[in-house]
């Protein structure tokens, strides 16, 4: 009782006094914070067009929605902290272009206007750096006359387009390099696909190369296309950096989405600490099986280190948390990758590995930038029909980076082939033989010329069964 009395009569005033001090400090801090400058996202100056382009049949309804879309996009950018420029006469870093694709469906009396797709493009020096699309359901993008439905469509499309732009895998490097400022706070906006959360910034600071700028043109979305893209540049065990691996993965994902038509939600991107062994197990062994159908296309890309099991000679991909000393326990077997892909029995699967195939022991001496991996693709596991593997080099060679371009040498020419050569079918599938025929001599030539090194990419295809 005495304790309670003392607390009530003596300690309580002190508590109130202390609470007052804390409250005063908190309010003062809040006031100070409210006066602080927001992050300087104005480091990237965006030129917004005077109007959106319209493709397809138009009407007053379409024209009004296009005007609203431009206004809503501008407002969304301002709210995100960007510096928006409305006149090309003023300095700007990147230009935004907006395109609205429409179709008129005629009824007996009135005509429905169907807004098929709205597109936002980031353009610099007449080259498309990034393309994102917004496709609404039929109910949200179809109406007869302009009104609340049109206003809502413009708002929804603007919010989606700006959000996708900022979340695009390549937006961090675009924002960082448009002003030539590697410390731009915009690099923190990078987002790994739609599944893996925010990534830490890569130590690679190379500027945009020619393949980082997307080719012009439209792309048809392939709903049955799925991809796992992995880039591991840094490792928890402090292994040597696999230089530019993270940038490789980001750019490959960008091409899959914006050039080959893979839906963004169907592309899993695992970068650095997001590429744990458990992540590989989850996406290879469960996610693919849950989503891939017989008619599906699958693309697997890996850029990073590999390691051998010295006892069995088996090849392992090294996850972010992998340890070459305990590779059997911490690595992900390449044979497991092939086994998983063989079981899918889908229409086509392409695997691209930007790792080297040399380094037969724990003390292997590797050239700067080499990615060590000891394996024989022909004997790791048999490949089923429809599975194709492209590797960066032969089993006794070292694969190099292309420092001037900020990519692995193999990945650079893989992307350059996609951008400049006739290797993409009308349906978005790849002409794999034509692509490889371009990549192989280019890689070999630059490797000899710049590094006095032999690097010969390899192609392995699954054999047809006797019934085919």
Structure write-up:
The chain is an alpha/beta fold and 468 residues long. The protein folds into two domains: 41-167, 3-Layer(aba) Sandwich (Rossmann fold), CATH 3.40.50; 185-461, Rossmann fold, CATH 3.40.50. The chain is 35% helix and 20% strand. It is built from eleven helices and 18 strands. The strands form four sheets. Strands 1, 2, 3, 4, 5, 6 and 7 form a seven-stranded mixed sheet that branches. α5 (245-258) packs parallel to α10 and α10 (409-420) crosses α11 (432-451). The longest helix has 34 residues, at 2-35. It is globular and about 70 Å long. It starts with a helix and ends in a 7-residue tail after the last strand. The relative contact order is 0.08. Residues 1-10, 21-42, 180-206 and 359-374 have low confidence and may be disordered.
Largest sheet: 7 strands, mixed
Distance between the termini: 92 Å
Mean pLDDT across the residues is 75
**Residue runs with pLDDT of under 50 for 5 or more positions:** 1-10, 21-42, 180-206, 359-374
Could you say what the CATH architecture of the largest domain is?
A: 3-Layer(aba) Sandwich
**CATH topology description of the largest domain:** Rossmann fold
Q: What is the count of distinct domains?
A: 2
Morphology call: globular
- Count of DSSP strands: 18
């Amino acid at each position: 009782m005495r304790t309670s009395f003392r607390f009530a009569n003596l300690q309580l005033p002190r508590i109130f006094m202390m609470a007052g001090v804390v409250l005063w400090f908190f309010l003062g801090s809040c006031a100070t914070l409210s006066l602080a400058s927001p992050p300087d996202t104005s480091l990237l100056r965006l030129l917004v067009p005077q109007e959106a382009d319209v493709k397809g049949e138009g009407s007053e309804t379409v024209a009004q929605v296009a005007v609203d879309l431009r206004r809503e996009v501008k407002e969304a950018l301002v709210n995100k902290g960007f510096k928006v420029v409305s006149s090309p006469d003023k300095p700007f870093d990147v230009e935004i272009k907006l395109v609205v694709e429409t179709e008129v469906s005629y009824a007996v009396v009135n005509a429905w206007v169907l807004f098929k797709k709205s597109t936002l493009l980031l353009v610099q020096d007449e080259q498309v750096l990034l393309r994102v699309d917004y496709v609404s359901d039929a109910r949200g993008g179809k109406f007869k006359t302009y009104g609340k439905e049109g206003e809502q469509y413009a708002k929804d499309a603007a919010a989606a387009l700006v959000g996708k732009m900022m979340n695009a895998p390549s937006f961090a490097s675009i924002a960082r390099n448009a002003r030539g400022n590697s410390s731009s706070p915009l690099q923190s906006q990078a987002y790994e696909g739609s599944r893996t959360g925010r990534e830490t910034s890569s130590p690679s600071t190379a500027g945009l190369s020619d393949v980082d700028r997307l080719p012009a043109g439209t792309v048809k979305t392939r709903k049955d296309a799925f991809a796992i893209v992995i880039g591991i540049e840094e490792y928890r065990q402090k292994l040597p950096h696999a230089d530019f691996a993270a940038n490789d993965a980001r750019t490959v994902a960008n091409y899959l989405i914006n050039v080959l038509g893979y839906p963004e939600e169907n592309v899993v991107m695992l970068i650095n600490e997001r590429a744990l062994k458990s992540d590989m197990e989850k996406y290879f062994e469960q996610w693919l099986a849950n989503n891939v159908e017989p008619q599906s296309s699958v693309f697997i890309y890996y850029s990073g280190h590999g390691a051998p099991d010295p006892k069995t000679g088996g090849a392992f991909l090294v996850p972010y948390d992998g340890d070459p000393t305990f590779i059997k326990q911490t690595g992900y077997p390449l044979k497991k990758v092939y086994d998983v892909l063989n079981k899918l029995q889908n229409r086509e699967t392409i695997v691209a590995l930007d790792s080297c195939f040399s380094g037969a022991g724990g003390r292997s001496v590797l050239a700067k930038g080499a990615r060590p991996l000891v394996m024989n693709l022909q004997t790791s596991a048999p490949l089923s029909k429809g599975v194709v593997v492209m590797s960066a080099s032969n089993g006794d060679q070292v694969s190099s980076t292309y420092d001037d371009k900020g990519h692995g040498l193999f990945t650079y020419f893989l992307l350059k082939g996609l951008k400049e050569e006739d290797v993409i079918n009308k349906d978005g599938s790849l002409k794999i033989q034509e692509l490889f025929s371009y990549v192989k001599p280019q890689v070999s030539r630059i490797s000899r010329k710049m590094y006095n090194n032999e690097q010969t990419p390899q192609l392995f295809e699954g054999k047809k069964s006797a019934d085919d």
